[in-house]
Every structure is written in structure tokens, then in C-alpha cells.
Amino acid sequence: MLGFISEKQDCWEFLRNTDLPVFIYGMGDGALKIMKAFRKYGIPVAGFFASDEFVRGHTFEGHLVHTLSQIESLIDDFIIVLAFAAGYQSLYDRINEIASRHILIAPDVPVAGDGLFTYGYCLENAGKIQAVYDMLDDEISKKTYADVINFKISGKIKYLNDCTSPREEVYEKLIRLSENDVFVDMGAYRGDTAEEFISACRGKYGHIYAFEPNPKNFRRLSKNFSGNERITLINAAAGSEKGTVSISVNEGRMAHSSVSGKTVEIPVAAADEVIPEQATVIKIDVEGDEKQALLGAKKQIAGGAKILCSLYHRNEDIFELPLLIKEIAPDLKLRIRHHLYIPAWETNLYAE
Description:
2 domains
């Protein structure tokens, strides 16, 4: 079982056992999460550095923040731990260029929930992980699944480089569209995914229902689609049943109130209760509440809706969400792709 997992040593164990100094690249929430793991494993941090344009005498966690060139001028050999996300090509290329000169680890810390994705965690969930691997529909999916899990354990970005697929293939090969599709966008943000859908179907669609809980984002979403009678905007979080939830307003996205910051009370709505017609395509990217959103759309999914679903917010998403979708609609074919991103964000499930 789990013969596709080649990495047996967690990145945390590697960092704890190294004799080389460890520098964290980046500041902010990602660095704080990594520091928490460092304290758990007893990993010493030699210091912090940031991109040249961000270094202006900053300090972080009691350390003066340097540039990479400053550290390179003082130390010949050291390890870099990446503490932020790289989601566009030029930054992605820069990270890989640095990784060609130094040992670089990009630890996988969950966006939502607790715990770490370790080899031990894989063994604890081996049956579920193997079940998902076995039910994937194509070899690209199996390789992507294996590479992403090996990355999550080791933090080695070579695995993400090896399995990155072009986003353009989503509506070309993975999710086939028709002229009258009813698109449900859970986690609409400011309309970026809806615009991708409209472009892919060349404006020929039936209706779009867009869920967005963040008040600021919803105002922008409303402005972007003002006057479009084929788009219904829903200022609520997608969940399993009607209710409310306390949410922390962060930089553009939303997070549970366990995250520090200003909180607001927002409504929760289930797709099955508020969508008056059968959906044909459902996209789910709701910052860690994917399971509840799926449960709230069980009738739509069982009725034949195709699905695009994020698999990276919680540790368990990579296996729990595919299993849930397959349980709701056994005839769906499941494919997994990873699009350009470090860490393993933008690892998504496509089902039709």
C-alpha cells in the first residue's frame, strides 16, 4: 500500500537533523505558521531574509531581516525555508533559480485547520489515500496525486515542477461545456472564475449563481457584473445548511474567526436550498469549508453537475473530498491537476 509515496522523511525531521544554518525566506502569516512548527520540532532558525524590494531595516520575530545576497556574502552553505506562496510565473521562476543554488524547502502548512501533513499522517490515513489513488481516472491524475503528496511530506519543489499542468486545459479537456450551462461559483471572490467560465463558453451559458461572503469582495463582484440578468449574486458563505458564521476579514479572502483580525457575522446558505434549477457545473473554493459546501450541494451533484473543487486548504482535503464526491455521485470520473503554484495550492479535483 502507498507504493507511490517515495518520501519517508518529513521536511521537519530533515531540518531538525541538519548541521546547516536554516534561514526563513519571507515574513507574515506563513512565517509565523512555520515558526510554530519549528518550535514543536526544536528547529533553530538562523535568521530571515526577504526580496530586495522589501528589505528596509525590517525586523521579524526579533531578527533583523536581510537580503539573500547579504546572507550569501557571509555564509557559503545554508538551507532556505520558503514562507510565502508563489503563484505567478516570474516569482515561480525566481524561487526555482534560488533552489538551483541552495537547498530550498517549501513546508506544507495548512491554510485551515491544525496539524501537519507528515509521513506518519499518511500512514494513519493510508487506506483513504490509496482508495483515492486507485479511483483516479487517468495516469496524469495518479502522477499528480503522488507528486503532490510527496511534496507535502518533503517540501521539495521538484515534485510540483514535475506535475504542473496548464490552466488552459481545464475547460478544454477536463470539464466540457455546453451552450446552456448553469454555473455555480462557490467562493466567487471578485468574479475571476466566473469570467474564466464566460470566456471559455464564449458567453453562451444559461445562468451563473455566485456565492461570495466577504462584504468588500461582494461589492466589487456586484460592480463587475452590474446589469447582467443572467448572473445571480449571493452574499453568503456556501455551507451544508442555512445559518450564520463568524468570519475574520483578511486581505481580500475570508477565514474562520479562529484567525486573529476583525470579524463579521455573515449568512450561510446551501446550494441545494437557494439554487432554483439543476446546476451543470459547480466550482468550490471556499477557504477550508469545501466539505460543508459539497454536503450542501448533494442534490445538485447527484443530479449530474460537473465539479471543480480545491483540494489544498486542509490536510485531509486531498483524500476526504474526492471520497465524498465519489460517494455522492459514484459515476463521476475523477481527475486531479496541479496548476502553477508553490506550495501545493491550486491542486484541484475535476469531476464529470
